Each structure stands twice: as structure tokens, then as C-alpha cells.
Amino acid sequence: MTLSLYNTLTRRIEPFEPLAPPRVTLYTCGPTVWNFAHIGNFRTFLFEDLLRRYLEYSGYDVYHIMNLTDVDDRTIKAAAAAGKRLGEHTAPFVQAFFEDRDYLRIKPAHAYPRATESVPAMIRLVEQLLDRGVAYKGEDGSIYFAIAKFPTYGRLSRLDTRELKIGARVTSDEYAKDDPRDFALWKKVDGVDEQVGAAWEAPFGRGRPGWHLECSAMSLEQIGRCCHAETLDIHAGGVDLIFPHHEDEIAQSEAATGRPFARFWLHGEFLNVRGTKMSKRFGNFLTARDLREQGVDAAAVRLLFWQTHYRKALDFTDEALAAAGAGVKRLGEFQERLRGAGGAGRGVGELAKLATKFETDFRAALDDDLNAPRACGALFEFVHEANGALDRKAGGAAAVRAALDGAMGVLDILPTAKAADPALERWIAERIAARDKARKSKDFKEADWVRAELRAKGVEIEDTPGGTKWRLV
RNA sequence: GGCGCCGUAGCCAAGUGGUAAGGCAGAGGUCUGCAAAACCUCUAUUCGUCGGUUCGAUUCCGACCGGCGCCUCCA
Questions:
Q1: Number of domains in chain A
Q2: Contact between residue A219 and residue A125 where contact means Cβ atoms under 8 Å apart
Q3: Domain for residue A286, yes or no?
Q4: A305 and A352 housed in the same domain
Q5: Looking at the C1' of nucleotide B12, which residue has the nearest alpha carbon?
Q6: Range of A396's domain?
Q7: Protein CA A90 to sugar C1' B70 (Å)
């Protein structure tokens, strides 16, 4: 069994094989740092994290590139509204993005090219396209891509170019283009651009890059640098990027290099709120920092997302998040139990057998187009069966620990350890000792009162044969 | 109008042409002073509706109903 992935290009699940194994080049469209990213954005980044981690689990050597869009219409508009220079406005949001990424346990990409630092590559790309005659300067001084010169335009999105609804996007610059459907590669500078410092000199005129151009230039520059390649193994993003963003990236890149831009196109579905996509525009969004401030364990967010396939819309509700939190807690207790299970136990067979079965199921599920819901099903089934075996004093806990570790390397959904400060820890120990004393003298009323006292401070206790254990909740 | 997706128990959600994983919640039991955790048992004769194909469909086809997305530099 090998990994198969749904390729938007073919609308089929296809066996995945990189161009130059074991290297896999992965490019994922990153955030536009005009504001905080919301958890809908992060659903996509989390899906990409799953992809990245599972590729690595499968033995591939992944080179992951995620760009930061720090110059585009929205960043410029936001900077102007704040009365700041572009970089001054975006810097804190870049910082916030990295913090949120870490909070959500998303593995850092190997490279985070920024649009503002990749302008020379963009200019080169535009020059190449001009040389090849697929780009032209419009009457407004901006440079446009001529989709009529790129016959396969529309292949990814399956939008027949003749069907493109053109009436709705008539703005002033439409009159500058040869064809209303052509898109801007390089926008001629305007007053606001200059005001915020979003303008660069180029042989074809002072201006700034178009959004689609940024991704093409940055991805080609990065894979050229790291892997001497012109074709990405995988390019991923949210479904809303299929058109026009990714369609345009393909057109620009392939027109310039003459080679396929990306072999696999993967797209993650939206995170919804009451059936409608989460969006800044609708105001129905929640940021990662909102969750963090609410004390939500990132593991719960991850499990919640893993429990719905990445190509299916997921409705975000507090109930679903709480349910995932309960699942995470169960995993944490299982891990805790394994830690105490040591190497002892009767025989080595039963648990080891369960571990092997789990690993097989886990892999089969994720091999099937990253079916994380099924992988989670296998995980919980494994936890259940292993708990039963542990109750029967079966041996082989080491194999279970190893299997769990392996799976967590991909899913990473064990509860975040909460550390107690020394003073609190001393107090807890003292209270538990007091309770034990009360229990020994059968003063259960007192014992229960102490338990409630601990619970009020967020300390949960559990009486076991080896003594009373506690944890912070 | 064009392209496309979804509708499975109280909630969330996998899934297969042969009779429904898993999580949460709930009920009963074992264990426990009581809890907690864990375990055992139970909880959809049924997969939006109506037709069709088939020995057999939740799974394939069609229609319809309901919800949603893209076609606007939105993850």
C-alpha cells in the first residue's frame, strides 16, 4: 500500500510518487499578513501540516515552502488605513502568525519566503513572460498576462474560458486589458502604494507585484535554490484558491518554464460556522489566539479537524470542540497509563499484536488520501483494545508506546502538559496527604470535602492502587 | 447561468454493490468508601425523498427536496 492523494488537476485519487524520491517538494500558500489569521485559515494550514507529517512518516524527505504574502491589495489598504508603512503594519502579523502556528503545533516550513523580499525574482519572471510574448503592457501601464496565449488555461478549475462571467468584474482597469479575463502580473504604482512604501523599480515600470505572480516567483525561486527543480511535487491550499489564484499560477509558471508547474494539486475545504464559511468578511471568525485565551488545548483543535476529512466542509461548534477535547483527554490518560505499565506483564504477544494491527490500519487510512477520520477511528479502537489487554495484565507495553509515539508524530494530539508551580504542587501534596489521612480514619465527609477543594483549583484526582494521582485540568 | 460539493444515530463523523468504523453524550453493570479512570453490555432493521439498474444499494443511475462553495487578488 502506498500513499494516494486526490489531485484537483485530474479530479482523481492517484498514487503519489515524487519526481526525485525521497525528496518531496511541497509548496503551500501561506497567510496574507494584513491581519490575524482565523482558524478557518488555520484549518488549511493544519491540513497541510498533516500532509507534511505523513509524508515524513512515510519516509519522504520533504522540503516545505510556505510563502508570506506581505504585499497585496489588502496589506496595502490596511497599512494605509493604519497610517503606517507596509512593513511596519505587517511585521506584527507575521509574528502573530508564527506564534499561532506554534500554538497549534504546526511544524515550521523549511522556508518562509516573503513577497517583499522576493521582488527581484518576480521582476525576472515578468521579463521572461514579456519576452515570450504572453504578457503585455496595458494602457494603464500595468503588465497583464494574456490568457489567450495559454491554451490550457482553465484546466485546473475546469472553468471553460468561454464561460467565464465577465460582466461582474468590470472596473476601470478592465479597459486597459486586451481581454477582460487577463490578470495583472505587475501593477503600476499609485499614490497609496507610494504612501505605504509598496513600490519597486522595474524595467517595465515602477509598480508592485500581483498576488498570483508572487506565488509563482517565490515557489520557482525556492525549489530552484533547494532542489534545482522547476516542477513542484505538491502544491496545496484552500479550495477558494483553485480559481483564479492557482489557475493563474499555473499559467504564469508554465508559460515561463515550459514545464509542468506542480504535479499534485491538493485543496482543503472550508471551516464553516452554521453552514457558512468562516470569513473576515462575514465577521463569523475566531482566531487562534482567541482559542488560546479561552484555554483551549491545541490538541483538541487538531483532533477536531482530523475527525473530518480535509476535503469535506467542517462546521465549527463549541460542542464539537468540547467533544474533541474529551477525546484528547482519553488519549492523555492512555499515555499516562502506558508510562506506568513498564515492561512487566504476562507474555509479550497481545499488546504487540494490537500495536502491529493498529499501525497497519493507521497507515492504510492515511495512505487513502489522508483519511484522518479513519486513522483516528483506528487509534481509538487501539486505545480501547489495549486498555482491555492492560486490564488483563498483558505484556508488550513497549510496542504500544512505540506505535502511539509514531502516530502522534503525525497527528500530535496528546494533551498539552500543564505544569504546576512549586507552591501549588506543595499545596496539592499537602491536601492529598490530608485526604488520605481522613480516608484512613473513614472520615469520608472530610475526604470528599478536600477533593472538592482540589477540584475548585482545577486539580482532578484519581485513587489508584499505587496511591492518589492528580492532574491539572 | 457555468463549474463543483454535501445531506449517515441526540451531536460530530468514516464507510462499502452483500447488509452501518470511531469520538462525544446517554442507560445499566464490574471495580471504588464514594468518585475518577478502565472494562463489559446497550443505544441507526437504517444511511434526505421518490423512482430505476441489480439476486441484492446507504453505496451505481435519474429526478426532486434541502444546505453550501467557486465563478469578486478569500485558506
A1: 3
A2: no
A3: no
A4: yes
A5: A320
A6: 296-411
A7: 28
